[in-house]
Amino acid sequence: MQETDVPNLTISGAIRDVVTGETPRASAFIVTIYGDAVEPRGGTLWMGTLIDCCAEHGISESLVRTAVSRLVGAGRLVGERIGRRSYYRLSDAAQAEFRAAARVLFAPPPEPRNWLVAFSGETGDAALPEGWARAAANVAIAPNRSDIRQPDAIVMASDTISGEGAVPALAARLWPVEDVASAYRAFLRKYERLAAELTDPRALPLQLALALRLRLVHDYRHAALSDPRLPREAWPPGWSAGEARRLFVGTYLSLSDAADGHVGRSFHDANGLLPSKTPATETRLDRLRREARC
């Protein structure tokens, strides 16, 4: 995005760093656009809108078209041509995946009570549902949360009664804890400065508000969707997931009125402009507002 795109505001400081920083990878950023702005509005978008939106973030038209083709080939997007225009909607499988991701991003994640331990004769990781890690050939563990699906095995709930000091090292061996911690720290460094600069988000041009919110979601989901959300005893020193979560929620809410206004003004599907608000977008915001009040 160039300064001439938003003549009523000088882009400087953290705002400039967010929207003109490192160009995101095209396919991953398209996933962010669909997840944040398109899925809760029906899941279909005109290619021209996608090209324009990506261009604001330094992604060329050729990269967008290549990425869309790959997403179609991977079964995540389905294309339809009407006249001279092409439209792409989420496949049924992708829509289910996006809704699962939205529950992590836009609803308060359930807190783990303790641990689950599963015993079985299975030795392959493919036999384990999401969230589980194999500690030995026939033993797997997972955080005991309401969203964790149990494997077809003997499953017990367990508390740590000794050796708590060794739990973070065990967790780091079984889950990508250090990578997630690094992603949260990078998110905080980038968006604490942005939040401090957004003293009056209502003054932002709508286009810029959406650009900032898309980058916010893109960077936060990189950490949040990889976070195993383990019990507190497994956290490494300086674990900043809670701090990053509060920053994400507050910044997302502050940008959303303007950002959703730009979606309703400039995003098209085959029926015309997408609505600025839908029951799904309002549900997201209501959940985040309740979380922010806690």
Summarize the structure.
This protein is α+β, with helices and mostly antiparallel strands. It has helices spanning 13-19, 26-38, 47-55, 61-73, 92-106, 167-174, 177-197, 206-224, 241-266, 279-293; strands at 44-46, 77-82, 85-90, 115-119, 133-136, 139-143, 154-158, 268-269, 272-273.
How many beta-strand elements?
Answer: 9
The total tally of domains equals: 2
Q: How are the strands of the largest sheet arranged?
A: 5-6-4-7
Please identify the top-level CATH class of the largest domain: Mainly Alpha
Gross morphology is globular
Strand content: 5-15%
CATH architecture of the largest domain: Orthogonal Bundle
What is the string of SSEs from the N terminus onward?
HHEHHEEHEEEEHHHHEEH
Low-pLDDT residue spans:
1-10
Q: Mean pLDDT, nearest integer? A: 91
Classify the secondary structure makeup into a structural class: alpha+beta
Main pleated-sheet profile: 4 strands, antiparallel
| Residues in helix, % | 40-55%
**Rg result:** 21 Å
CATH topology of the largest domain: Arc Repressor Mutant, subunit A
Number of helices: 10
CATH superfamily of the largest domain: Winged helix-like DNA-binding domain superfamily/Winged helix DNA-binding domain
Distance between the termini: 36 Å
